[in-house]
Design brief:
heterodimer, A: about 230 residues, Rossmann fold, six-stranded mixed β-sheet, about 40% helix, B: ABC transporter involved in vitamin B12 uptake, BtuC, 2 strands, globular
Chain lengths: ~230, ~350
Amino acid sequence: MLEVRDLDVFYGDAQALHGMALRVDEGEVVTLVGANGAGKTTTLRAISGLQKVARGDITFEGKSIVGRPGHTRSELGISLVPEGRELWPSLTVLENLELGCYAKSARKHRDESLERVFDLFPRLHERTKQLAGSMSGGEQQMVAIARGLMSRPRLLMFDEPSLGLAPVIVTQVFAIIRRLAREGLTILLVEQNLKKALEVADRGYVVETGSITMAGPARELLSNEGIRAAYLGL
Amino acid sequence: MTTTAQSRRVRLPGWLSMRALIIFVVALVLLYLAPTVLGLGDYLHNIAGLTFMFMAAGLAWNWLGGYVGQISFGHAAMFGTGGFVAARLTISSGLPFWATWLIGGVVAGLYALLWGHPTLRLRGPYFSIATIGVGEATRLVATYWTDFTGGSSGLSLPIGNGPTKFQMYWYGLYLLAAVVVISYWLRRSRIGLGLLAIKEDVEAASDVGVNPTFYQDVVLFLSGTVVGVCGGFYASYQAFIDPLDMFSFERSISFVLIGVIGGIGTILGPAMGAVVYIVIQEFLLASYPQLYLGLYGLLLIFVILFEPLGLSGLLMRVGRRFGIRPSPSAAAGGMSSAAAVPDQPTASVGAGSTDTKDGPR
């Protein structure tokens, strides 16, 4: 469904990605794990069209999407739940969700999509008129996920969904991801919380300094001695 | 599924509320009749016409400055372009005056696109600085382009084939009415929501499928066109224009002042701001011209320090004291379309807006 090949990305002179490569198949949950600054977010930004690509290719459902501007992604069926949530704090929850289905293909299904996300997050249904900025971090993360779903994506990407959240909320967020996966949504998950990410994923990639150093079924990675020593401190 | 009761009622488009429509029509009729009923006197009558024009220009500036959050210090470039194109057409062609305004406006809008398409990729202060450059460069070119603008001696318009100064009151009113409708539509439509998204977070807007380049270009074109039409109006009104006045930095600043004093991002704001601006301009500065910049500078500082939403913010604060609550995002100018939520439980509507601090789960 999504294939990233040989991707180089620069921030000015600094090279952030060195030949990054990964693949996500339909219906899979794939996770990209690694330390801070390894290039996980940069990879997602490149897929989202927010970051210029110097070399390499990104294909979605067989078609190259490199060089197409970021606002075309939601029409294609790719949606991002960004790091730090990036809601519109002075808009209401409902307005944030409405913006989620801004793309033409999603607009027709507005009511249907709203019903779906309210079913997933009943809490939001009670708070449609509240300003997004006045919600707790956990609730904001729910709004961000709901907004991401409003465009009816076929591929949903999460960037550090557990960042800055209380452990009990993190568990809830991962429960949501698990539920979406069970419903058949294809998910690309970037996460620093390696253990949680590998527990929910089918396959995983380990990123170090801009390229993949290890790949495999999530269960194998989780039991890999090197990974346990380097990332889990076991 | 339309029931008979529904089909008999007048159907309004989604962005227009019945209340707003009634207020708008009543205000329009009152202002239309005001000169005849009140007998304003020549001076006030003419100043009122000019005020309508400044309201329209301030609102148009606000589409870019308030709705998208791109503060332009160069709108005099479009004001002057529109004014001079309209003046040239009036002198050399037999076109009716309103057509010269419109053509002047469109030329100004296209000119805005020409410099705006590349510069709108900048945001915040960087964009503002670029607009200062554009404004000043345009002023200099216009001053030296004697064949077109008449250079520093300016252009005099032929008297007699346009509207009289007395009639300008109503043309100003029509112009303002049209601009108010566009402002309202821009704010309340889907486009308005997209603009707010761009204003607060360009990347997130792009993520959900809002095309920031396209929307910003459209808004700048509309804004430049209307300010250009205002320039044409001003040329007809004054019957004499010169580049130093039309393209001056003070002219650009006046649009910023009107927006900021009245309340950026709102509709009523720039309208009130224009009144304050004209009152200061005509009644204070006529007597104390040396205070010009000092007074405006002080005003700006006070507004930004104490009431960033200007007079609109002040009104909302007074309203709250008397228990009138605007919808939560009205301050930010969002559209409240909660009525369209599928099976919204009625009880939760009030609850959601009142207790904003419920703590984490």
